[in-house]
Predict the structure.
Amino acid sequence: MLTRVSQATLPVGAIAQPGRLRERVPRNEQWLGFAFAAPVVLLMAALVFVPLGLTLWDSLHRVDPMRPGTPFIGLKHYVDLLSDTQVRQAWLNTGAYVVIAVVLETLGGLGAALLLQRVTIGRRWLLAAVILPWALPPVVNAIVWMWIYNPSYGLLDGALLRFGLISAPKVWFNDRVTALCLVSLVHVWRMMPLTAVILLAALQSVPRELYEAAKLDGAGPVQAFIHVTLPLIAGGLAIAMSQSTVFAFNLFDEAWILAGSSLDTRTVLAQVYMSAFQNLHFSYGMALSVLVMLASCLVSLVYVLRVYRETRYG
Amino acid sequence: MRAAALMRRFGLWAATAGLLLWSLGPIYWAVMTSLTAPTDLVAQPPHFLPPRITFEHYAKLLGASSSYLGTEVQSVWPQFSRALVNSLVVSMLATVATVTLATFGSYAFVRLRFPGRDLLFVLIVATLAVPAYTVMIPLYRLLVSLHLIDTYLGVTLIYVSAFLPLALWLMRSVYQSLPLSLEEAARLDGAGRTTTLLVIVLPIAAPGLIASAILTFLSAWGQFMIPLVFSPTLATKPLTVLIPEFVTKNYVDYGLMNAAGVLAILPPIAVVLFLNRYLVQGLMAGSGK
Amino acid sequence: MNMRKVLLGSVAAFLMAGVLPTRADEAKPYAGQIITVLFPPWTTLPKDMTDRFTAQTGIKLDLQTLGWDDIRTKIVTSMVAGTAPADVTEVDWSWVGQFGAAQWYVPLDGDVDAAVKADLPTDSIFTFDGKLIALPYNNDYRLLILNEDHLKKAGIDHAPTTPDELMSDAKAIKAKGVVAYPIGLPFSATEGSATAWYLLTRAFGGELFDAASKPLFTSPDSPGYKALAWEMAALKDGLIDPAATGLKDVEIQELFKNGQITFDVAGWAGNLSVYTDPTKSKVAAAAQGALMPNVSGKTRTFGLPGAAGIPAASQHKEAAAVFVKWMVAPESQIESYTALGNLPTRTSVLQTLDQDGKLASGKVLLEQAATVEPLFKQGTPGWYPQFSSAVATALNQAAKGQLTVDAAIKQIAAGAEDAQK
């Protein structure tokens, strides 16, 4: 147990009081700390926190570059957003992406991590292959998969036809459910490596002795997995899942390239982009982006709290 | 028992093959398509190997002239090369700036004590949960007023603000894993804080630094949303924005589109192949704690 | 003596060397400048055209093409930021209201003389607030383009003249097994889908909006409603490819060139030159233009001309002006027509082409040209782009079966109200 070093500004040379350890923080260390941290803090303040504040402020006004003036309109944008059917659809789509992505990425990532853990020859190359989809520009992934999904000449329909699973080329993007699934698939293809690596790191931190002990107790591989592995990688799982969630919330490139502004697959971020940069209703877009941020933070918070609780005893 | 062991072996091999097919299959398909002649592309059913290899798509991208629906038009190489240069320059600038700031900044957040240190760090890392477009529009107006739209400086600043939190987090893990005794020893020898950082800590933290750099470079290379808004013209337009434009322009020329895509993924592939070790280290470190 | 001669000679040579470049400069005042031009795919100028321009004027061209639907967004985001997306850009008839009001384009009245203006009848569409903000170079209007061979194989000997006849002809062609999907109409959420519906509204004898910009298509017996119902019926009867929900108008044109569809319903007038070019089209001998069908028997269509304009934030305005004027020069218009299918905007050029017999389906083209009207008589309103995007979205959803015709019409009407707010 470490005593917490007080961060409060102490006069240099504070007297150590009986019963409590207090360290003095030398002035020059404070200044050096400021100096090193200042550029970072200034940059983040200017480019993230200030614009964030501006977004919140402007979302309460009408900011439209094609129209003069920026009158205060209070919460009108937020009210309009609640009744906007296109926005509602975008939320549903984004929700679908999050669910599909988290489930598939976690299951697939876990499977891949377990496999990587077992493989001993050429693990380095297998790992490189697994990571590759994650390293590529999402835009290129979308183009590659778009060609695979092409109803007339694409690989998907061609393979399904050849194996007799469908009788005629199917236009996948006509049906809302399949469209969502196909877009999610591209996203999962890209993000699963991240989950796999995180879980691999977690798996490798589980001590071998525990597995030995479980075997001695007569536990089979499945039981060992449930009782030894899972609890110990819970932290890693939580982190991986929260990453999956945040990235799925921010899905843009794949849906945009594969289906454009089609309402079936439109995400909230695409809706923000369209409102702001196609229809030029800046403040409307900003109000929506505030809602997206709140939703994203809320969901992440759930995971963070989970992780905090898990790792406190870790 | 031998049968069970063999089954397990076979299962492992099958699973590995499946994983490889899943990860590399689409890339293989893209490469194959880019080397297939247009007439073979529209054949039914699709060929798994191109019947004959052609480089005409790459010629259209890199050659002295291009063609559009049968008409010979100006070469697209000037645009392509310009976008390639832009991607490289911006990715490099963003990487150097981010890693430098993270190296010093993270050290301050880990080893140096100053008022508000922990709160600031939490706030900064919390911005990872803020989606890009929440700050995009005011940023856009801010950069417009500063005349930084479509400049390397403007885009680099935005990238740095986006990738700095993760780099800080990563470097923090790296610094925390280093034994204090090393720095204590240096201090006893009379070295100042900065010297300690530069001479003692950095060489040992180098792998983490490299991992940070790789992650930042890959993230910057793959950006689409941000340059879509902030790099409207070829002055700073990166490859990731140019290539979808090819798509909208050459709507049926899939060979060309895949060729353009293949060219755009060559640098990331190179990074993954040669710097694989550092990349994995980085991802693992960033995911822990 | 010899020295004098040599000296005089060299001085003379020196003077001449000083004089000659000036004279060449006068002909090419902007030589050495590079201008960027941004156009949609059908204006990807052939290499010998661009080379010729550079040889004539010394100005180098950096030709960029973007999908049509992306150009507007590109222009808007750039101009709002105060940078020019290019030195010359496409200016579509539908953007004039918005861009003119924002004063984003340099007035070109001073650059063209009255004779040229008179030769360009569509330039009234590009005049905002009395100022000409772009020069029209692409005289797009719509007519029915069909594949004669397919009709003959189905035993039909004349082009359909009413929408009902078009549908029954298509059914006959499909029944005979000539092609699987005879009718070509786009249903992706792009502008091409919306303009096709406007055209069919006209074909059913009506307009979109009244003088007060109120929708005229909301009741089930209105022309707009019937047009949408017609499109959906054709889709349901298997006359239109279900994959059309992912296709733009330019992709439908590729299908026609490949002989996969019989009717390019919202056919572009200029495209006939490309359709009848054996090096570019597989159906060169069979492509024919026909008058746009109409319930009343009297054909109607509308014009969607494209123009070239100079953004106000451009850094090379004078060189850009040289290019824009060159685009509407007679030789450029002819070459743009033969190579790319952009119908010339100059009346004189059209007449010359027709006299020389180079105007594909010339008789029909000119007859249809006489019936061209603008979609909005009072000029394109600033809310048009947002309305059109709502139309395209609704059409896309209806084609996918997610909206009934009734629900789609209601959504379009709501979109109109939204856009006009």
